[in-house]
């Protein structure tokens, strides 16, 4: 990987002065074009050997481009808040919106490489992380992002010389610390780990660019030209940037499916309901104060057809919780800011920290339900969403989150009854719109979408609970009972968790 | 994953009889179309719970389709020969050519799942395998293949009933063995392992199809309809099925690169040459008889510009080996059979077993050299080839292969001298063609391709050795010495190997 970056590349002052103006002009033009027409985000990763010019490169990019549309995120030791979220959370937060360039000083690669060098990560675990990173970058590319991954390299001798030079110059001496010299000792380990990481993640859609870091002019000019070339090529490229997807296959050959198999006549008498409600709310209230709960977050996902009773059920849950502990996230059409980001971004931002509860009234499954049925996204988009959703939940789960997903099912007849009732009762009228009536016409398409969703995203770590919701009392108690049982299982049966941040 | 396949799906005799003729007719038509126009291979994996109807399904497909264009590969315990090759070797051998359907009874998933249930595979190692499988299937899809992965499911009760029914019927009783009942005991473990595997590998490009296996008619009709639907959709789909690739970026900003950095004046005097040649040939001859060598294979890859001296170097290597031990693989334009397969197929078939040596005179790097420069493949094809090549070498390496890659570099002037010499000398004249002269005109393009190749595929496990070859003596000795040193390192410094097959 590093052969070309150990040759002693140099650019003389004259060449540099002659070439820089063209590159700068080109970069400004491309940046303008990106903002006006490009409509895709640019993610630039700056990584590599210490002393190879990472921070200098960022400064050069700021100097040569319009800094108002650049953002740089430096990732060093994670904050308390970051530590209490899944590993990728802080990177999701920092993603640039469409039309912007985000520079990552330190990235999702930094921690795995550092842990591998420190001997805290087995080769197998490292490869697992690289697989997750490849999936994450594939998602970015599917969302239209241009991903440029720079690795600045120095030979062992080059690093030594570089540190000496920095130390000698009074303006840069402060940058050379004891740790810098210590890192020279782990040079071999870094090269081995980095070589492996770069090879595993040198994907066709997001390849690495290795740059020799010895000579300032060479490094700056290379980065400038590479960014410019990549931007221009991507701006001119109108091809579809999506991963291939197998078309959906009609597998339904009888009328039996997970929804028709539900017994919607299940119900609970009023007295039973009140006893049971009190019992499970009490239990939940206790569980939420369980000392072990502080190491977990709880994510409740509510989906269901219109008027299935999501809101009422959520209120029965929150009644048992402390308002400071939970957040209800009502998911409606995405805001402008959200539309400029990858689809999953608006859910990542609401991922709760440990000890907290997030209740989603409609969820990330919107992509494979309403967006699929209404054609708000392409077929390729919703087909790949199943994988992205599973990856998302997997990552939350690995971090200790407890994920409980409910689908509330009511019959067409019961839905009609509730719609009519809502129209009659003044304070419920706002709940029923023209759209709700239209959605009823598409019930077959929604039905198929729900079945596919359950088949493709109900996993051992985050199973779906299908709730027979024709009877509200029955539904609410089943939901509360499920939450309590899952919590008891998770809090009582604590396994070693896969914490990644420390 | 399995919810829909535990509902007790059944198809009555009447419906079955009414529907089957249409499905059969459709399948025959689609199969004809695939052969005549489709020009893509179809890979059908048949996997799942024992007793869920895997073999019955294969029989049904044979009954309903034209068996002349079907092939079924059953993979159980690997043969001796298979055991001495990398894990994926036997699957590569069995891939159907374009226009054909290959049914895999047991597949690349079987061993990892079985090992996981037996407790011989950690979760991390399992995930690593799944990542490799995802990359392999992505390659198949990039090569145009339609991949249909069936998983036949039974509920625990369903499996018990199925085994009882098979046992009761004298025609099928032989199929129920002690192992069948033993597997019922590991049902839970299988479900957990399979659920995880299916989730990890349920990719947008090669999703799983889970089918309930209880009822014969339901299962057969489902498989028939799914295969038909998938074939028809794929035959009608003219979209590009390739993964996105980042366009190549012009990174060259000075004249220094791994090739120009070579000192082509290096030479060896005749007397020195003879001493050194004898010394290293003797050493190599000993190393090839090293007892530890029986657990490794040796792969020598020779690339270089025309007239760089590959043939002569290879002869100096083979002079030190026993003819029964090595195989020279001259790589020319692919045969018709090879063109009907994924690009890497023709190299997989020559992968040596342990204790053997394969010497490739030109190699799998043809894709990123001649095919790239001459436009014999698309840009996307050669760009993704770097990853596929790295995956290939990684897999060989994991299995204990020692891979040594040589690029022989000569100057343009020296090449011209050799060309002219070849024209003059009668017995060398066959070695020089019009094409060789034409290639000289493209030397800049080849130069860039070689640099990219070294940058992207020189890894710790399989580094490139660049050979200064203006002086044939120097080149030959450097090659022999490199082989000996790498062998000594590998044979002396034996690490625990990652054997996968037993």
Structure write-up:
The structure is a homodimer of 502-residue chains. Chain A is of the alpha/beta class and 502 residues long. Chain A has two domains: 3-236, Rossmann fold, CATH 3.40.50.300; 270-492, Rossmann fold (3-Layer(aba) Sandwich), CATH 3.40.50. Chain A is 49% helix and 12% strand. Chain A contains 20 helices and ten strands. The longest helix of chain A is centred in the N-terminal third of the chain and has 26 residues, at 13-38. The two termini of chain A are 29 Å apart. The model of chain A is unreliable at 494-502 (pLDDT under 50). At the A-B interface, helix 6, helix 9, strand 5, helix 10 and helix 16 of A face helix 6, helix 9, strand 5, helix 10 and helix 16 of B.
List the helices and strands and how they pair.
Two copies of one chain form a homodimer.
Chain A lengths: L12 H26 L3 E7 L5 H11 L5 E5 L5 H4 L5 H5 L7 E5 L4 H8 L5 H20 L3 E8 L2 H13 L9 H8 L1 H14 L7 E5 L3 H21 L33 H19 L9 E7 L5 H9 L7 E5 L5 H4 L5 H4 L8 E5 L8 H5 L4 H20 L3 E8 L2 H13 L9 H8 L1 H15 L6 E5 L3 H21 L10
Parallel strand pairs in A: 1-3, 1-4, 2-3, 4-5, 6-8, 6-9, 7-8, 9-10
Global morphology of chain A: elongated
- Which class do the helix and strand fractions of chain A yield? alpha/beta
What count of helical segments of chain A does DSSP give?
A: 20
What composes the largest sheet of chain A? Answer: 5 strands, parallel
**What is the level 1 CATH name of the largest domain in chain A?**
Alpha Beta
Number of strands of chain A: 10
Helical fraction of chain A: 40-55%
């Amino acid at each position: 990987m590093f052969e070309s970056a150990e040759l002693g590349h140099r650019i003389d002052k004259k060449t540099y002065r002659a070439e820089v103006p063209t590159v700068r002009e080109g970069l400004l033009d491309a940046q303008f074009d990106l903002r006006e027409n490009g409509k895709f985000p640019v993610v630039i990763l700056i990584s590599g050997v210490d002393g190879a010019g990472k921070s200098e490169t960022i400064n050069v990019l700021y100097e040569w481009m319009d800094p108002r549309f650049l953002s740089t995120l430096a990732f060093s030791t994670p904050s308390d808040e970051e530590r209490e979220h899944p590993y990728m959370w802080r990177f999701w937060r920092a993603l640039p919106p469409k039309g912007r360039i985000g520079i990552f000083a330190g990235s999702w690669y930094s921690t795995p490489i550092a842990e591998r060098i420190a001997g805290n990560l087995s080769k197998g675990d490292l490869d697992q992380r690289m697989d997750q990173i490849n999936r994450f970058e594939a998602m970015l590319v599917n969302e239209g992002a241009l991903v440029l991954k720079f690795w600045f390299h120095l030979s062992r001798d080059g690093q030594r010389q570089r540190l000496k030079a920095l130390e000698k110059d009074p303006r840069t001496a402060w940058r050379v610390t004891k740790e810098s010299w210590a890192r020279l000792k782990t040079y071999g380990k870094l090269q081995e780990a980095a070589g492996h990481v770069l090879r595993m993640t040198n994907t066709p859609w997001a390849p690495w660019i290795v740059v020799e870091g010895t000579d300032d002019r060479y490094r700056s000019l290379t980065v400038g030209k590479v960014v410019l070339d990549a931007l221009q090529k991507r701006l001119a490229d109108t091809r579809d940037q999506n991963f291939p997807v197998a078309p959906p296959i009609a597998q339904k050959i009888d009328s039996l499916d997970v929804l028709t198999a539900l017994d919607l006549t299940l119900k609970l008498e009023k007295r039973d309901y009140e006893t049971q409600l009190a019992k499970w709310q009490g239990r939940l209230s206790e569980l939420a104060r369980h000392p072990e709960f502080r190491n977990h977050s709880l994510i409740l996902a509510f989906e269901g057809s219109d008027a299935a009773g999501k809101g009422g059920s959520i209120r029965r849950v929150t009644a048992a919780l402390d308002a400071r502990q939970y957040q209800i996230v009502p998911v409606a059409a995405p805001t402008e800011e959200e539309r400029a980001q990858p689809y999953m971004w608006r859910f990542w931002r609401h991922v709760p920290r440990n000890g907290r509860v997030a209740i989603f009234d409609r969820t990330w499954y919107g992509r494979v339900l309403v967006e699929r049925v209404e054609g708000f996204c392409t077929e390729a988009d919703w087909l790949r969403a199943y994988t992205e959703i599973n990856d998302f939940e997997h990552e939350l789960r690995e971090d200790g989150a407890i994920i409980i997903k409910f689908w509330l099912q009511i019959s067409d007849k019961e839905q009609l009854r509730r719609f009519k009732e809502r129209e009659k009762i003044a304070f419920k009228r706002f709940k029923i719109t023209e759209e709700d009536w239209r959605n009823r016409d598409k019930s077959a398409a929604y039905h198929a979408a729900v079945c596919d969703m359950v088949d493709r995203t109900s996993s051992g770590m985050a199973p779906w609970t299908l709730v027979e919701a024709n009877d509200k009392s029955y539904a609410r108690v089943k939901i509360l009972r499920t939450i309590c049982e899952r919590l008891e299982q998770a809090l009582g049966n604590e396994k070693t968790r896969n914490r990644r941040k420390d």
